Amino acid sequence: MKDLSGITTTRVATIRDALAMIDGSGHGLVLLIDAEGRFERTVTDGDLRRLLLKGLPMDACLTELPTLASLVINERASRRDALELMDQRQINHLPVVNDHGQVVRVIERRDIEKPILLSTPHMGDTELAFVEEAFRTNWIAPLGPNVDAFERTIADMTGVSHAAALSSGTAAIHLAMVLLGVGAGDTVFCSSFTFAASANPIVYQGAIPVFIDCEDSSWNMCPKALERSLAKAKAQGKLPKAVIVVNLYGQSADMDPILALCDAYGIPVVEDAAESLGATYKGRQSGSFGKLAAFSFNGNKIITTSGGGMLLSDDGDLIARARFLSTQARDPAPHYEHSVIGYNYRMSNILAGVGRGQLQVLDERIAKRRAVFQSYVDGLEGVPGITWMPEPAWSFSTRWLSTCTIDPTVHGLTAKAIVERLAAEMIEARPLWKPMHRQPVFAGCDYVTADNESVCDRLFDTGLCLPSGSNMSTAEVDRVINALRNILGAK
Ligand SMILES: *Cc1c(COP(=O)(O)O)cnc(C)c1O
After folding, report:
1. Ligand 1 pocket: which residues have CB below 6 Å?
2. Which of 118, 190, 195 has most ligand 1 atoms within 8 Å of its beta carbon, as the pocket-test mutant?
């Protein structure tokens, strides 16, 4: 329990004591308690002024204060309940009491009005300068120096030769499908445990996804399940046109065995690295393994251009083709001439300016996200039933999102129930990705596991993502830890 001596007082205190306490408390009020610590009423400086106006001296005791039924809330009530009560009564402070009526703390409106969100944009100091430069030079569109520099910096950073900045990560995955010749009736393998944007582009091309389970050790594509599905596809005479390997929550998949398998079958790999910019696999940058790789700069990712993506490859011809296709596929001619279907998928020079600024702070953002994750691990140590997303020896995860599973047999709470309880505390948490093979839109698609158990189904049923933003304060991280400890009954 917090030290409440600075904001609670009894009736033996004087008006002077109480005024001094109000000055020092920062709350604008003190709480009057009885000898047993039970809450009696709140006292504002207005209450004290009225006593002085009645002619009482500064040394008079608070026994002169009339009794008053002040509003309190029980400690088991949620923040949302507290905020509703404060809104109804138009007050900014609410004393919290236990079942014995003793004050345990004071809730302040300014502390709870702000919800803690899952992952929000976090700008650095230089984004605006790059954007301003684009304005100053009227290089608003098309493309321009920010786009060139953004592409070059990402290519250098990841060690991939070529990169094309695009309007979204989804566009990058879609162009990868186009470049690999994926068409109607083809199949493409894809991780089941992911966001729909990994798999939707397969369907844009009229192809059919086959979903592959993940492994417990990395939560990403299971090499054994991939091996099984490749063998099965070969036996059926229908090998996939490509394999989309997703790197979830800031962590690479186990690329060596996956690449070895795909090489053996001659299938190109597309790395969906939308969530793993800055992560490494055996020391090498995520996004540098696939024949093609996609990054996303959507607003919730580790860095953002407010919306955007990038396609990378060591094959310069592929990226040149991506640039062509993403700018409406205009054949070289003085008029508009088109021999293939194009797209409007390029990134603007303004947004690339935001990206250049964000890249300068990427390392800081990664360090902060990892620190947030570590705070959760430390702060929830000893709470039974929590398993954090593993980080294998070969992995350096950015911990884009802090994720864990919570054993429902330990606390009797499903992930969904915990998410709801956190929402009542104005904390945004989410279940883990709902597997693609369970999505209504992909009903009927094949799904392959390594053996009889579906790992991603279990993860979805028991897992959650906690607020993970690099702009979270220590107090916010502590609030999440305390809320979870309370929900899980581990005070
Ligand atoms: C965010 C995301 C995408 C899509 O990126 P956008 O830029 O939002 O289109 C694709 N795959 C995964 C795994 C993602 O998390």
Report:
1. 168-170, 194-195, 197-198, 246, 272, 274-275, 296, 298, 309
2. 195
Residues in contact with 372: Cβ distance below 8 Å, sequence separation at least 6, in sequence order: 399, 402, 467, 468, 469, 470, 472, 477
**Cα(407) to centroid of ligand 1, in Å?**
28
390 upstream amide cis, omega within 30 of 0: no
Separation of 23 CA from ligand 1 center, angstroms?
Answer: 51
Q: What is the pLDDT of residues 308-357, one digit of tens each?
A: 999 999 999 999 999 999 999 999 999 999 999 999 999 999 999 999 99
Q: Are 294 and 273 spatial neighbours (Cβ–Cβ below 8 Å)? A: yes
Compute φ and ψ for 348, nearest 5 degrees: -80, 155
The pLDDT, as a whole number, for residue 2 is 59
Q: What separation in Å is there between the alpha carbon of 222 and the centre of ligand 1?
A: 20
The residue whose CA has the least distance to atom 2 of ligand 1 is 274
Judge contact between 322 and 164, C-beta under 8 A: yes
Q: Which amino acid is at 38?
A: R
Count CB-CB contacts under 10 A for residue 54: 9
Q: Note the pLDDT tens digit of each residue in 276-307.
A: 999 999 999 999 999 999 999 999 999 999 99
**Distance between CA 474 and CA 210 in Å, rounded?**
43
Confidence of residue 28 (pLDDT cuts 50, 70, 90): confident
**Biggest distance spanned by C-alpha atoms of the chain:** 98
- Ligand 1 atom showing the smallest separation from residue 309 Cα: 7
Q: What predicted TM-score, i.e. pTM, was given to this entire model? A: 0.89
What is the identity of the amino acid at 339? Answer: S
Q: Quote the strand ranges of 132-274, DSSP E.
A: 162-166, 187-191, 208-212, 242-246, 269-272
pLDDT tens column, 138-174: 888 778 999 999 999 999 999 999 999 999 999 999 9
Pairwise CA distance, residues 48 & 69, whole Å = 17
> Could you report the per-residue pLDDT of 76-121, keeping only the tens digit for each?
899 899 999 999 999 888 999 999 999 988 888 887 778 999 999 9
**Element of type H or E holding 174:** helix 169-179
